[in-house]
Design brief:
The chain is α+β, with helices and mostly antiparallel strands and 138 residues long. The chain folds into 2 domains: 1-87, no CATH class; 97-138, no CATH class. 57% of the residues lie in helices and 16% in strands. It is built from 4 helices and 4 strands; from the N terminus they run ααααββββ. A two-stranded antiparallel sheet has the order 1-2. It has a two-stranded antiparallel ribbon with strand order 3-4. Helix 2 runs antiparallel to helix 3. It starts with a helix and ends with a strand. It binds zinc ion. The site of zinc ion (ZN) has 8 residues, from loops. Zinc ion (ZN) is lined by residues 106, 108-109, 111, 126, 128-129, 131.
Amino acid sequence: MKFREKIAAFMYGRYGVDVLSKCMLIVYIALAAVMLFIRNAVVYYILQGLSLALCILIFYRMFSRNITKRTAENTRYLKIKKGIKEKIFLQRNKWKYRKTHVYRKCPHCGVQIKLRRVKGDHRCACPKCGDSFDVHVK
Ligand SMILES: [Zn+2]
């Protein structure tokens, strides 16, 4: 059996690599890069321990046969990543349109609504839940 086939046979039924593993690998590389500049021995050993634990976790996830649990972890990670991305996108847009629009949170469902900046009191209907609420724009 060739080496490539042996690897394929070994990995059969195992989880493999996913987005979370790739992110953990990037963190591992970043930790290794930071460790190059650390002079304090205690901090160095703490970072070394962290990177070793991360490395073990990456390989554990990759060779794990509990695919449903690993998939659930990856899904949770993707959900958190999406939430952070949306918050950054919202803050960027709030800054970008700060002169022409205001953002208000729907008191019923909590979604952020972009409204034209027109001074005064207005009544606003949420496009998501349909609830109406009062808005004051300065
Ligand atoms: Zn709403």
